[in-house]
Amino acid sequence: MSAxxxxxxxxxxxxxxxxxxxxxxxxxxxxxxxGEVHAIGDTCxxxxxxxxxxxxxxxxxxxxxxxxxxSLRTGKPLNLPAYEPVPVYEVTIENGDVLxxxxxxxxx
Length: 108
Hints:
The protein contains no helices and nine strands. The protein is mainly β. The chain has a single domain (4-105), classed as Rieske [2Fe-2S] iron-sulphur domain (Rieske Iron-sulfur Protein, 3-layer Sandwich). A three-stranded antiparallel sheet has the order 1-9-8, with no helix packed on it. The chain has a three-stranded antiparallel sheet with strand order 2-3-4, with no helix packed on it. The chain has a three-stranded antiparallel sheet with strand order 5-6-7, with no helix packed on it. A hairpin with a 2-residue loop joins strand 2 (17-22) and strand 3. Keywords: 2Fe-2S, Iron, Iron-sulfur, Metal-binding.
């Protein structure tokens, strides 16, 4: 599968998550303070909650429901109650557009 355009970089708000869906795969996009775009699975592994409704702090995305924070770089949970990681997807920026391939999962 090839990468799919999900939005323009200019559509993203720094330190806020945005939910997109590619081929039925929910993904949370985050533009961090350094200008890097991250894409992680949008479903918290603890409570089946949308992570894009959570809070961005540094390089983490925190689930609003139970407080588990996930690394935007590795997908690993940094605290309980979650103990399973979420997938992290490769992000490509072309001509100001964000492209994601939901089958291209980064290896931590």
